[in-house]
Amino acid sequence: MKALVTGSNGFIGSHLVEALLGKGYEVHCLVRKTSNMRWLKDLKIRTHIGDATEKSSLYKAVSGMDYIYHAGGVINGNDWQHFYSVNCTGTKNLAQVCVETNPSIKKFVFISSISAAGPSEKAIAVNEDMQCHPVSDYGKSKLAAELDLKGFMKKMPITIIRPSTILGIREDDFCNILKLVKSRIIPLLGNGDKQTSLCFVQDLVKGIILAGERNEATGKTYFISDSNVYSWKYVIETAMKYLNIKPPYIKVSYPVMYLAGLAAELASKLTGKKAFFSRDRVKEARDVYWVYDISKIKKELGFVPEVVFEQGMKDSIEWYRKRGEL
At what angle do helices 172-182 and 309-322 cross, to 10 degrees? Predict the structure, then answer.
């Protein structure tokens, strides 16, 4: 079986590539000329130079694929146009090329986000049938892409995945937070309640592949998490535990984090480099509930999360520590 992975050099994409290779797939990767190939350089893959925002660059990569896993996109964009161009137009381009050149494709899997659904009410887990109300430009662009894809569902088999907040190795934002904690700078995220669904990347890619391979998933949308609900306080305290961080430390308030997001965006515009942080991300984390029901993917596809949170955090911190990043 041949599978094309977009965003293959990134956090989720690189783990997905490894998992597909482990299952015996012939894996093709769509990458830009400027892509950092650090996670792919030693893998037996075939690369295609292209960009989802440039439709003409996609034809060769898409041709002959059995599966397409579209994990490419931008999380920390500079403005709405940037988000829309990459996350929405890029997705639509890929789907159009697939319809034009690959009518026998087995599945097109789009990696969306819980941000497309928007936050939940306190103590109420959102399911896939509820109305979406994204609050960030990132979430709005992902929802726009989902809506565009629904227009292609009569032309090819499509499944949409909405991952919860994903943790694990190779995740730059996660590593940056761990670095802050290691420096005894503690971001005050959330309000102390159990208010967010999480998942480690190993379980996510298992669910993504399951959705790709199972015919029952065609035309469906699924949330993926580890089925538990966490407070950000507990997440940070668990990181502190395995980083061996004890008082004294500095607590960083929401206004300071918001200003830091603004500074990161301005720096990105000046340098042309990707922003590692943004006001969009800070706004999504402030006193808002992000809780999602995964009973649908468990019931229909037999998805069972396996990574225990504390063990996943411990293993991730150890991996970053061994690499000298902490």
Answer: 80
